[in-house]
What we know:
Elements: H1 2-13, H2 28-43, H3 45-48, H4 53-64, H5 73-113, E1 119-121, E2 127-132, E3 144-153, E4 158-161, H6 162-165, E5 169-172, H7 178-184, E6 192-197, E7 218-228
Antiparallel strand pairs: 1-2, 2-6, 3-4, 3-5, 3-7, 6-7
Amino acid sequence: MKKMVLCFSLAVLMTPAFAVSINNKSSQQDQLGYSYGYVMGRTNAETLKEVNLDAFIQGLRQAASGQASSLTDEEMAKALTQYKKQNESKQLQQFKQLADQNLKAGEAFLADNAKKAGVTTRPSGLQYQILKSGTGKTPTASSKVKVDYEGRLIDGTVFDSSIARNQPVEFQASQVIPGWTEGLQLMKEGSKYRFFIPAKLAYGEIGSGDSIEPNSTLIFDVELLKVSP
């Protein structure tokens, strides 16, 4: 199928003045060529916003038909390298701006949250609220714990939940983010706490995956089910 699509696309590209209205009455060759081009454009939409489409089509047509390039390999490599550097610089700037915005939003949230009844702020910046007291053992950093939890952003978006999965998790208390390691050692078996974790005690300037942006302040409801030495 890939070979057939390429053949039809080459035929289209090699036609100097291909300008036709495509619809479901068009020939199979025209529909296939259009579909191939549309999918390519949609897949690369962000990059193509910064590209001269006429020049792009010219380069595609010349390469597909075996014509000599209008630029040398060195000139093309230079153009691509310059674009890559500019794009990386732009992305880095956007990343830093997002990190700064999240840090300020998190600091404002924690400052306001610290004034609420029942919220305790520790020297590290970790805040917690006791939702349910427990009477069992208190873990150390080396203890193995079993917990049920839900993680949220400060806007209320849930990004992870063992509660929703109905699957409590087990791990060593020192093998998680610093805010968790510190918070777990405040708890007793059977208790349930709400932790408000500043970015520096969570995933910091890097963030985690698509859900947790850089410098995100996180909220976790954690129920400590079991502590093993």
